[in-house]
Amino acid sequence: MSTANVAPEVPTTHKACVYDKPGTCSIAIRDVPTPAPGPNEVLVKLTHSGICHSDHGIMMNSWKTLPVPTKTGQVGGHEGLGHIVKLGEGAEKAGVKIGDRVGIKWVSSAATVRKPEARADLCVLLPAPCTEGLEGLCFNQRISGYYTPGNSHLRQEQEAAARANSPSYVTPIPESLPGELAAPMLCAGVTTYSALRKCGASPGQWVVISGAGGGLGTVATSLAARGMGFRVIGIDMPGKKESVLESGAEHFIDLTQFDDASIGKEVKKLTGLGAAAVIVCTGNNRAYGQALSMLRFSGTLVCVGMPTGEQVPIANAFPSTLVQQGHRIVASAVGNRREAIDTLDMATRGVVKFPVRTVGMSELQSVFEDMGEGKITGRVVLDFSSA
């Protein structure tokens, strides 16, 4: 009998937090069918999941660039981790086995259209994003928690489906790393690490993190300062100053004390010439408009945060100024599988330190309400043992 068909007994239903009224801030806890893992899929018994602002955007239907609205009853989440309890047909070829502790990321699978005779991780068309370490741009990707069964809002004793591929799109998680620290690495960590790698700054140079006190920002600040050797200036609301400095920033700028014209001057006052890079972690159009004024010559603006509502061009991004200053504007989606492993390694070694708190399923509604009002500092993680 194939090991792909051997699994512990699992229930036919489980508790899940679902978006019961997409377009509004509303969560319902319901019994839903436990999915059976299909070919190249695994079933994971979850222990933790980070709560990401992307979950809020999908729930609220506030990202106008998404192809279709979120469906009623969607289970959200893309920072889940736990242990594999069942393998679908062929999943063992990805090098995973029952009992492995793994994480589930934003991209649950990529390169799903394949040549039958080719390796499982090669697309039909080459070159393609997923074959160049850019699976976040893959033409055939599946997104956890958006028209794919979500994985993060489920009880500890129950299961969720995640895609396995070759190499697996579930990420190995060291047993020594606490779940509340591991979960944020699966989106906030890998996303900001990838952005920092693209920013062009060298160790010892100044990097500004705009939105430094949020879930993305505190992780980005810690990775930049402690993991990559950058000198960090964090920008956010005054109530987030302590968390930003504790995460590793040398300076904090209270954005309420400056207007669009003066905030760039403040950065240059602190740095001399300006920052080598600005990483915009907040989904705020005004932050993007301010960022270019903070850069030194040949500096880079890295777009990470996704503004909601109607799309607005980046203010002050005049071609003549970009040419004269040698400025670059680059975008960074989620990182790749290698970057996820690197990020988790830094977390395991204690390099990454950021504010984090855990909550149960019944508290998810209030977390989303606070998130919508910009009140969240650091990262919030669902601990299903306290659901």
UniProtKB/TrEMBL annotation:
Gene3D superfamilies: Medium-chain alcohol dehydrogenases, catalytic domain (3.90.180.10), NAD(P)-binding Rossmann-like Domain (3.40.50.720). The keyword Secreted does not apply. Residues 23-382 form the Enoyl reductase (ER) domain. One of its GO terms (cellular component) is cytoplasm. Keywords: Metal-binding, NAD, Oxidoreductase, Zinc. One of its GO terms (molecular function) is metal ion binding. It holds the Pfam family ADH_N. Its cofactor is Zn(2+). CDD domains: CAD3. Belongs to the zinc-containing alcohol dehydrogenase family. This is Enoyl reductase (ER) domain-containing protein. It comes from Xylaria multiplex. The lineage of its organism: Eukaryota, Fungi, Dikarya, Ascomycota, Pezizomycotina.
